[in-house]
Predict the 3D structure of the following.
Amino acid sequence: MANIMFQEKSRILRNENISPGYYKIGLTSDRGYSEALPGQFVTLKFADQIAPLLRRPFSIHRLITTAEGISGIEILYRVVGTCTKKLSLCKKGDTLDVLGPLGNGFSIPSDARRIFIAAGGIGVAPMAFLTSFMQKKGADLSECTVFIGGRSEDDILCRDDFTRMGIAVRLTTDDGSAGEKGQVTDILEPAMKLRPDIIYACGPMPMLKAVARVAKIYAVQCQISVETMMACGMGVCLGCAVEPENDSDAYMHVCKNGPVFDSDIIRI
């Protein structure tokens, strides 16, 4: 059954700078996100928003849980433009207009045991939700490996969070300042000899294309979370179209049909 989205005014619980250019913001929710799935997203609008005109999409990074249940969400974001710069200046107690949960999330096969997760830069944001979701469902994460890539050590996020869950973490950076020097697929592809049951990936499009290629070579199921600009976030404006792999005339849309897709059904 599809999740029901809702719109609400959310109060900022915290807005922390966790690495140069990266922030984590906690938001209250009266409705709760108990039905939200890893890979889904929300769109935000400032209380006084005139410009930028459009809402901005952000992956759900974590659910905030208290003794009473789920009371809010966390968003992990990188400052890249006017909107995220303004977001980084928001203070505890400020309010944001939040719409969600939106889109389709990751699906987790019941028989998946050895799981590979590939994340590039801010693409790690939905993966924290994914691993915590699996853990709460009773999954054994001892055979899960997370491959994280970034430009430098400053772009390597959440590794301690994964390690605390008993997940093996492997790192690559463009400049070699953390882990091995190179790209995520430089360490992912040699690890494929272990024959994972499934690969989950989120990051820049070139990375997703490379991960999908590796998955196809080894005939391993792969789900990718596509990052793209969205105008409405609900499939109305048709601005985030992606081309299907089967040459169908019916384009799909990241906000409505995704952002998570099986890697073999869209052309990337």
Summary: The chain is about 20% helix and 35% strand. The first helix runs from residue 82 to 88. The mean pLDDT is 91.
